[in-house]
Amino acid sequence: MSYFITAYGAEAFLVENLNQSFLSSLPEYLKNEILHLATQKTSLSVYGVSKTIKDFFYQDKDSKSWIAILGTPLFQLPEKEKPSFLSNFFRAPSLIIRQHMDGCWCLLAYDADTDRFYAATDYDNTIPIFYSETDRGVFLSSHELPLARFLQSPVDPLGLSLTVQLKLTWGELSRFQNIRKL
């Protein structure tokens, strides 16, 4: 599984602090397997990219728009088709997800032309996306603990109780206040 963190609309020093919070919780063997995509408004760092079923990444060199499909997506595209896939996705994201996506995945994308950020996961939420919207930016992660450390979020009593009793949280709850699960 790939581990990821991303930020939208956050200043560079906050992105660096988020990266440091995330690195402290990563297994050592993943710290050197990194892919980084960035624009002026976004940053995506993915750790653990050397896997049997590859993640899908593409960044348009001209517009700086990008897309990442992580997990075990049952999805392959030849390199020459990636630019058209990116533009088609931004024209009709829900259609592309319904018609072309299968497997266990999460999707993160940024359309630099419209300044829109997209986050989605498969229908079973197999690859969760934890997120927090703050006045300093939007922060997303594959794991809630590094996000909680970075944001200094206190424990959510209901989220913790659900985790202890059921080993999961329902809906958008997480174990921490101000952090939600997509």
Helices and strands, in N-to-C order? EHEEEEHHEEEEHHE
Structural class by helix and strand composition: alpha+beta
Major beta-sheet overview: 6 strands, antiparallel
Distance between the termini: 18 Å
Give unreliable regions as ranges: none
The general outline is globular
Helix content: 25-40%
Supply the number of helical segments. 5
Order of strands across the main sheet: 2-3-1-9-8-10
Based on CA atoms alone, the radius of gyration comes out at 16 Å
Average of pLDDT:
90
- β-strand percent reads 25-35%
Number of strands: 10
Pick out its properties.
182 residues, single chain, six-stranded antiparallel sheet
Describe this structure in words.
- This protein is of the alpha+beta class.
- 26% of the residues lie in helices and 31% in strands.
- The protein has a six-stranded antiparallel beta sheet with strand order 2-3-1-9-8-10, covered by helices on one side.
- Helix 1 crosses helix 4 and helix 2 crosses helix 3.
- The radius of gyration is 16 Å and the shape is globular.
- The two termini are 18 Å apart.
- The model has no long low-confidence stretch (mean pLDDT 90).
Q: What does the secondary structure layout of this molecule look like, with pairings?
A:
Layout: E1 3-8, H1 12-23, E2 34-38, E3 42-47, E4 56-59, E5 66-73, H2 82-91, H3 93-100, E6 103-111, E7 116-121, E8 130-134, E9 137-141, H4 144-151, H5 157-166, E10 180-181
Antiparallel strand pairs: 1-3, 1-9, 2-3, 4-5, 5-6, 6-7, 8-9, 8-10
Helix pairs in contact: 1-4, 2-3
Summarize the structure.
The chain is an alpha+beta fold and 182 residues long. Helix content is 26%, strand content 31%.
